[in-house]
Write a structure and sequence with these properties.
5 helices, mainly alpha, single chain, 123 residues
Length: 123
């Protein structure tokens, strides 16, 4: 399957958004971890918090990786892009549920860019 320039550009745009969000989220780990250390939380929560906080950043990097992988695929590009966009949509819904409007909107843009990339990919 050949990818058009629009499909490639929208996929790269989406993956760039996802990687930027992952790096921005991950950059707050030290700050939030210090706040957690100063809180009166149970020691168990303080111990596992860095891993729980880092997980969304790793997740977003993984989704961006799936998107970038499609740039080098020959077959089933549409399926991977649609599936990845579905996962990003679920992340957007979770962001809105948590009250994170800006990340939710960025995730929606990323998902829509992936859908555009899938639609513009040839048969």
């Amino acid at each position: 399957m050949a990818k058009s320039k629009i499909a490639k550009a929208s996929t790269v745009f989406s993956c760039t958004l996802l990687m930027g969000m992952a790096l921005f989220h991950g950059s707050g780990l030290h700050y939030v971890n210090e706040l957690m250390q100063q809180s009166n939380s149970k020691p168990f929560l303080i111990d596992i918090f860095p891993v729980l906080f880092a997980h969304p950043s790793i997740h977003l990097l993984g989704l961006a990786g799936f998107g970038l992988l499609t740039l080098f695929m020959k077959h089933e590009i549409k399926k991977v892009l649609f599936f990845t966009s579905l996962l990003v949509c679920i992340d957007a819904l979770l962001a809105f549920y948590l009250g994170a409007v800006v990340p939710g909107v960025l995730l929606v843009f990323s998902a829509l860019s992936l859908v555009l990339g899938a639609i513009k990919t040839g048969k």
